[in-house]
Description:
The complex is a heterodimer of chains A (528) and B (362).
Chain A: E1 13-17, H1 21-24, H2 26-37, E2 41-45, H3 51-55, E3 58-60, H4 67-80, H5 86-92, E4 93-94, H6 96-103, H7 108-115, H8 119-131, E5 135-139, H9 141-144, H10 149-162, E6 173-175, H11 182-187, H12 204-213, H13 227-233, E7 240-244, H14 248-251, H15 255-263, E8 267-272, E9 284-287, E10 296-299, E11 304-308, H16 321-331, H17 342-352, H18 361-366, E12 369-370, E13 394-395, E14 414-419, H19 437-440, E15 445-448, H20 450-455, E16 463-467, E17 472-479, E18 487-491, E19 519-525
Parallel strand pairs in A: 1-2, 1-5, 2-3, 4-13, 5-6, 7-8, 8-9, 14-18, 15-17
Antiparallel strand pairs in A: 10-11, 11-12, 14-19, 16-17, 16-19
Helix pairs in contact in A: 4-7, 4-8, 4-10, 7-8
Chain B: H1 4-7, E1 10-14, E2 17-21, H2 27-33, E3 57-60, E4 67-68, E5 79-81, H3 85-101, H4 117-125, E6 149-151, H5 161-169, E7 175-178, E8 185-188, H6 204-208, E9 214-216, H7 217-220, E10 229-235, E11 244-250, E12 253-259, H8 272-276, E13 291-293, E14 299-301, H9 304-322, E15 327-330, H10 337-351, E16 356-357
Helix pairs in contact in B: 3-4
Amino acid sequence: MSNPLADMAKPDVIFCIGTNMTECHPVAATGLKKAMARGAKLIVADPRRIKLAELADVYLPIRLGSDVALLLAMAHVIEREGLMDRAFIEQRTEGWEEFQRHLKGFTPRWAAAICEVPAEDIEQAALWYGGGKPSAIYYTLGITEHICGVDNVQSLCNLALMTGNLGVEGAGINPMRGQNNIQGCGDCGAETFVYPGSLPITDAAARDKFAQAYQRPDLDLGEAMTKVTAFLECGKSLHAMLIDGENTVVSDPDRIHCEHALRSLDHLVVIDLFLTETAKLAHLVLPATGWAETDGVVCNTERRVQRLRAAVAPPGVARPDWWIIAQIAQRLDIPGFDYSSAADVFNELCSLSPTYGGLDWERVSSESLSWPVPTKDHPGTPILHVGAFTNGRGKFQILGYRDPAEVIDERFPVWLTTGRRLQSYHTRTQTGRASGMDYLLSEESLEVNPDDLVHWGLRDGDWVSISSRRGSVQMKVRGTVRSPRGTVFTSFSFADVAVNNLTGSGYDPTTHTAELKVCAVRIEPVKT
Amino acid sequence: MTTKATERKQTMTLDGLEVPFSPGETLYEVARRHLAPVPTLCYDPRLEAFGACRLCIVEVQGMKAPVASCTTKALQGMVVSTATPSVEKFRKTLLELVVSENREVEVNPLRGFASQELSTLVNRYGARTGRFQGKHSGKSNKTDLNPFILRDYDLCISCYRCVRVCAEQEGDYAISVMNRGFSTQITTEFNADLRDSACTFCGQCVQTCPTGALADKKALRSADLPGEIEKTRTICPYCGVGCSVDIMTKGDRMVGVQPAMDGPANQGALCIKGQFAFDFVQHNDRLKTPLLRQSDGSFKEIGWEEALEFAAQGFRRSLEKHGRRSVYGIASGRAPHEAAYSMQKFVRAGFGTHYVDNCSRA
């Protein structure tokens, strides 16, 4: 997030797109409700009539995967009406003239045909967003889990840049991160494109720095491999894998492919709390200490670095993840793994990461700061981009709309989108084992518009078979107006309903993020 | 923002001392800031002041009757006394009225974060119980079988904190007040079970209840477990908001979660997952030892030494046979920094590649 969570109560205009915040980030959503009680306007764009949609001043039930068209048309209206922040554009951006010319053709009428929402509503949303002082954007995986995920994010950036809604209290572009430490995972360099501190692996100086720190003179310069490619390479170029706490068999966009990939490895070691569907495929499973048992550090969606503290002893001989990895590394004679505590590991991260330079174990144990914290006396950075961008000027991106990887046709005439529910978390390794949760949500179901149920000759609770080009699953249907006609929804939380047999139609070419939000399916009744 | 009004410090007299205040502050806020122990039962600093319990009354020079300090704004030159004998006597009587209606005053602290507020005040004032015998308001709901929230309204004192936190903070408006006087009852639309209302089971009503009338059913399962409750401050294990929570333990048993009212990301708010979905931690399904897969597909329990040696050998074999580009590492978005950092270092330092990723792409 460019802005802190506390800012969520402050905008004049709130634009939520592709975020089911009341279910997935309920505590953050309380801030928005406070802003609205104060009189803020809420614009919601989401194919499903989620609770946020019910609260919205204007609700745009856009067709799956049509976000770029909507955002281009909103930019068109803002430009046409002269709602830009000309001083901001002048002083802090580049490429405005070209972008301005580019926008001319993308009228609300053009977008209305693609997004399947009224042009007037697009106009209204644009007028409000463009007129708000400040206006804030919130988004989640509804924006990124598309083949055009990068285009979606850049379209939002264009809107914020042209209206000067960056570096200002109560404004910003704010992705809501889905896991307690997914932000921290990236901060630590546990992703292929960056070192700790977001230093790119293509940067020669960064390579030299880590080659020296890790005593690895032959450290690659720039050669990346995402997890998506890795699963294609299993059994070909890749033969051994270490997985820490990811139930990828259930969360991966394409389950059949994922299982096949893991089975073709010579050596699969999984560190986890439970014998998950993924751990069952491993040659060796190692028991980790979990939440409430582990001292450590996490980073939240507003870049706030916070301390985790152990409260109870772990089961059996379970050990912290870092200890397990360090022990394996030591047995492979990899230098630099003689840590004796979590503090040792964290302090090493701080010594190598420019964004964590001012932090250490002691400081995060008594203070709670948002990075970057470059020096020991730095107070942290709740709002990014105040006064200037780190990389110079903000660049307008010229982009156009393209269809999802898969669109509906005669054989697969229904749109399927996936997501999460309030009462279950990811693959239910945790919430599925918490007592009482079943009282509220005991099984997965397919959410179908009641008119579609009638039209398809189905009744609430009937079993159906859902098929895509990749596979099929069976589940019960549930009639709800949250689903628009022609679009159905389910979560991926229940391992016994392998929704990821269906998904996996395509990936964003830049980030390799899977298009989990769009899939064309066919629905047929199952005789019981 | 600086304006002339805030630049000029305003002052009032609090219990004989001249104290500064900011325009807009209530007498209660000024008093608490200066550590005057003004009692209250209907106050939650996160909510609009309500003025229902009247315990926070103070005397203001020039005013005929005492005023509720939570709803009275401080003004320049005001002279306020927070604990005169008559005010204290009035408070004691009010507490006795409240206490006379309640089945019990001392409740298990596992019931909720604020559950000890009434008993603390009753003890502080030595407020006799049973002085005003007669009718009772609020009736416990014994039919709602939800596994999270006990609706023990016999202990309700109609402070409306639950109703207000649900409306003002959560924006859910799941519960409301039915009837008035002795028939007052907190309930849902159509008097339904919470499951059939707009309730999201965030537990905020439980945590703000000052008498334990609303209580954490999951924590109460450990009511008979011996030992004191200890609290450990940490961060919720679920989404990326990063709410601060206190883990409650008795001995080495985790018994529940309470929100941290000063948590920077949540200011005391939680959702159903952070509040109630904690018992995966000491679940029977947890892995307790390393497991080695056998040729028949079953897993055999082994010790760490054998396990770590097996793990290392497999990576070494891959390295020797297929080269350094044959090993891949996947980090977890749910494990702490130390896990993620170690994983990327394992790959970069061990194999010189960037063949490491996490679960954020799917």
